[in-house]
């Protein structure tokens, strides 16, 4: 198998990010759930995070949880995606806490936990406006009524998501409302309900600015630790590293060509009408890297003077006219990645992976 495209994973840099995020959390008495789904839960990354002091991991897929268990990770794992009914049995066996929002699933968890003779912890998700998962607040009491009657389910906490589907930014006001729902749940059920859990990375901003409401005691963070970025706020997090994952691809053609295609323009292989700016004749490199490997829009060239023009399933075209150093076919171009690009590159079987400690 050829070596490129190659995903390089820098474990020490990821650990540095984890230290910083852990510090920020612990200064406010908040527990961190480090989310590893963005790199398909590479066990090397999970182990590095535990080395850095992370005690709680989160992932959205039961296959990834299985992979982590197989790699010997015995510590607590939270399942982030609300479970499929068809996977509840595995969930109860393999994870320690699940986020939930559906009555039928909560009942199925109760049933399977009963069979195993255990009490299973759930965090009831409440939709605070992002419109992904979560109980609508006006229906909260009926869910609490149900959970009160179940023997094998422990209502460990309430939780919410921000910046995931609707791109909604958490505010001190919206997060305070979640804290209030936690109080309501405690009064109404007479359970402890010790955890108020929010995520993801977009919520870190509240901690940085000292406006995280009292009562939040768990943060679920992935992107900041893995990539040092906050996609929802479109920022590089200034005190974290972004060069944690590098994708390297090889040049297979290097030629001067016009910057606008010749002839009438239809749509590309993916049904999009490409747009071109006429910059005259440019020097362009074709890389052996495509949409089967990565999200091309999420490639950020490490060197100055390189611009990604676009690509197709197996090719990426970059403009290298302004790159100051000599280049030839066979040379390697290196990219930092967006969250989506990291996700795809780590998942693609066509991308080789190498880990540096
Ligand atoms: C992915 C996910 C997170 C982490 O989000 P990041 O933006 O990567 O930090 C937190 N909570 C839930 C429920 C998630 O699905």
Secondary structure: elements and pairs:
Layout: E1 6-10, H1 11-26, E2 31-35, H2 43-51, E3 57-59, H3 62-70, E4 77-79, H4 88-94, E5 97-100, H5 103-116, E6 120-125, H6 140-148, E7 153-161, H7 172-189, E8 195-199, H8 204-208, E9 218-221, H9 223-227, E10 229-230, E11 235-236, E12 245-258, E13 281-287, E14 299-301, E15 307-311, E16 316-319, E17 332-337, H10 339-347, E18 352-356
Parallel strand pairs: 1-18, 2-3, 2-9, 3-4, 4-5, 5-6, 6-7, 7-8, 8-9
Antiparallel strand pairs: 1-12, 10-11, 12-13, 12-17, 13-16, 14-17, 15-16
Helix pairs in contact: 1-2, 4-5, 6-7
The protein binds pyridoxal-5'-phosphate (PLP).
Write up this protein.
The protein is of the alpha/beta class and 357 residues long. The chain folds into 2 domains: 11-235, TIM Barrel (Alpha-Beta Barrel), CATH 3.20.20; 245-356, Lyase, Ornithine Decarboxylase, Chain A, domain 1. 28% of the residues lie in helices and 26% in strands. The chain has 10 helices and 18 strands. It has helices spanning 11-26, 43-51, 62-70, 88-94, 103-116, 140-148, 172-189, 204-208, 223-227, 339-347; strands at 6-10, 31-35, 57-59, 77-79, 97-100, 120-125, 153-161, 195-199, 218-221, 229-230, 235-236, 245-258, 281-287, 299-301, 307-311, 316-319, 332-337, 352-356. Strands 1, 12, 13, 14, 15, 16, 17 and 18 form an 8-stranded mixed β-sheet that branches. Helix 1 packs across helix 2, helix 4 crosses helix 5 and helix 6 runs parallel beside helix 7 (172-189). The longest helix is centred in the middle third of the chain and has 18 residues, at 172-189. It is elongated. The mean pLDDT is 95. It binds pyridoxal-5'-phosphate. Residues 35, 37-38, 60, 80, 99, 161, 199-201, 220-224 line the site of pyridoxal-5'-phosphate.
